[in-house]
Amino acid sequence: MILCLISDCSLISSFQGMWIIQALVSAFFAILFIQSGLDKVFDWKGNLEWLTGHFANSFLSGMVPILLGTLTLFEVTAGVVSAVGVVEALVYKTYCFAFLGTLLCAVSLIMLFFGQRIAKDYAGAGGLVPYFILAVINLYFLA
Fold first, then answer.
1. Cβ distance 23 to 68 under 8 Å?
2. pLDDT at position 82 over 70
3. Would you say 112 and 128 are in contact if contact means Cβ atoms under 8 Å apart?
4. What whole-number distance in Å separates Cα of residue 65 and Cα of residue 49?
5. Do residues 40 and 78 lie in contact, with contact meaning Cβ atoms separated by under 8 Å?
6. How many angstroms separate the CA atoms of 51 and 64, rounded?
7. 137 found inside a domain
8. Is the model's pTM score more than 0.90?
């Protein structure tokens, strides 16, 4: 019964260019990076405190405030551009903002991965890998 309903769905018949997948991945990244970036904005002091301790024994110890600012800017921008990409994919079936948003997300993830590895937080770095794989796959299909 459900299969019959799905087979008549206009969404399925208009499923060209994988636009819905790009919209979903862009929505995922929009939520992820807007929340993460805004957390850093609204709890700057707490994040700075934690990261200062996290990088205390690394060569990045004196650069934590500038790196946190850079990462925050990248995350918020990646999230907002990804959100615009959702609208663009759903309304226009084009992917310029989705591509740019995913690219900014991938760069942000590389920054986070680098920091986790330098801080010797290998479990934290490993937790970023699935997000990065999703970003790379999405970039491949958007390109």
1. no
2. yes
3. yes
4. 10
5. no
6. 7
7. yes
8. no
Among the listed residues 72, 71, 70, 90, the one whose alpha carbon sits nearest the alpha carbon of residue 27 = 90
Question: Two tokens at 133?
Answer: 């794989």
Q: Are 101 and 30 in contact (CB under 8 A)?
A: yes
Q: What is the pLDDT of residues 115-124, one digit of tens each?
A: 999 999 999 9
pLDDT band at 1 (very low <50, low <70, confident <90, very high): very low
Q: Which domain holds residue 138?
A: 17-50+59-142
Amino acid occupying residue 132? F
pLDDT in the model for residue 21? 87
CA torsion 78-83-88-93 (nearest 10°) is 90
Q: How far is CA 119 from CA 35, 36, 54, 64, 113, in A?
A: 23, 19, 6, 12, 10
Q: What six digits make up the tokens of 5?
A: 């309903």
SS3 content of the chain, % helix, strand, coil (to 5): 85, 0, 15
Query: Using CA atoms in the order 80, 82, 87, 89, what is the torsion angle rounded to 10 degrees?
Result: 160
Domain count, the chain: 1
Residue 10 pLDDT grade (very low, low, confident, very high; cuts 50, 70, 90): low
